[in-house]
Amino acid sequence: MSLLELENVTLKFGGVTAVNKVSFAVEEGEVFALVGPNGAGKSTIFNLISRIYDPFEGDIRFDGQSILKRQPHEIAGLGIARTFQNIELFDQATVMQNLLVGRHRHRRSNMWTELAFLPSVRREEHRHREAIEKVIDFLDLQAYREKYIAGLPYGVRKVVEMGRALAIEPRLLLLDEPASGLSVEETQDVAFWVEDMKKQMGITVLMVEHDMHLVASVSDRVLALADGQMLALGSPHEVQNDPRVIEAYIGAADENEEVLA
Amino acid sequence: MRTVFKTSYDADIDLFRHRAQLGWYVLLLAIALVLPLGVSSFALGEMTNLLIWAIACMGLMVLVGQTGQASLGHAAFLAVGCYANVLLQQKLGLPFIVAFPLAGLIAGVAGAVIAMPMTRLHGVYLAIGTLAVAILTDDFIVLATPLTNGVNGLFAPDISIFGIGFNRYANPDRLYYLILAITLLVVLLYRNLQRSPLGRSFAAIRDSEISAQAMGVNVARTKAVAFGISAGITGLGGALMGHFAGIFNNETFNVIISIQLLLAIVIGGLGTIHGAFFGAGVVALLPQAISMSRDFIGQFLGGGSVAIPGLEAAVFGAILIGFILFEPMGIYGRWVKIRTYFELFPFYRKDMFRRQKSYLKTERMR
Q: CB of B64 within 8 A of CB of B231?
């Protein structure tokens, strides 16, 4: 059984079909990439998995169970974490506090015990911080612990957002353009981290990414989309050389162009 | 600038960041404790009033400063707290020590219930919706005349705890100490909230609802809880206002009070406990300051007191406009800047606290 299955998922905004009968399955322990030109429906698929949108038809299953009956906030509890294309961090809080919000799924205390701040709440806080320590170590965020997000450079914010998703301790991690706006070195870091998430932490990664070098170096399988349609599914190499994918990216090689060339 | 070298997670969790900070607050508490010895009973009454306003401001601060939800309706919760407290004592004969927390609880439940439909609204629509709640409460008090005595109002009995009476005129210092103790308790609750997962989920909703949701925060429920806690604390403030004023009716908690509360926390500095106290200081003491200066100027000009209708509202308005234009972070924000200036001297830069938006936000889903 696959970890995540999309079956014939369709989403329409008015007359626009953003996602059209898309079906794919992400196996446990693999890195799966979604690629495609702008407007292909990649982020929309993420938002469908996050339950921000309801699909028009089709089914989305996680671990064999349909998630379409789940509320959006229950998705993290299932073990699905995500990042956002345009970084959605909590700006007026420190890196530490942001990562701690990622632990919300593991909250055991309730309003009353927290208002009284019973010793059990303090113990919980210790446990959360110990869990976060691993994330901070993994992503080398030690220097930024107490810094406010509002004052951090873009690259660091990207990493913090990934850290916050890892703090959830997910089984499936959705990375929405993890390398956009990053320098070459930072992108390499992302590649290493994704490798390690897969190998050391056993996290399944589904990512949207435009940087084909990153996609080719880390992903096991790639799905190419254009205008909400599935174009090709296979290894990075196969997809990159698929004529339909090339056509979607740079247009068809018709006869006139050949004459001009 | 003091750099705290943290050697355990408790340093993150504890109420005070370091010893010196604890020292300052102990000093402040000591001053608050000896205050009745040094000032007139009039001034002590004003201080008591300030503390009551501070409780109400902290209530609203939980909602506006912590959770980022606007409310122009908090006078309603002051009223609910006040009426519940007095009615529980008068009609059911409950002692103050039971009626008072119950009043807070009733106001809190009222807040959470009202929040359920209300928090579907955002921004200015939420403000208008809550404004309607405040106006409706005024009418409900009149409609429920058999219970609330309508426009004629109710008398608040003297506070009595285990036979010890607290009266504003007979023993102002006792009342002051009682309210100081309640204020400290509310501050402790607020601090506990800030350092616990619930407080963090409030801040998460304030900064980005969409990612709070992705982190597993139930946005609708958490907003209702924020409304509930906020209304509960405000209700406690309202109960004390009732006792302090002695007599109250539907007009006591009108829309103007809602607006004053909101002004107070904006002027004080959004999102901080300090801001609630600074703002309470402005709102509670300004009317007295204005009337005093009016007398003074009147004497100076060789006449009686100068009476200018609407002066108070105008001064309030001017102060608010001044703060929004020149110090959006409020009095506490200004204090932090001054402190930072001296801590970093001579390396303070002019734009250190400038807010900047350096990246795009995800298009909001609703």
A: no
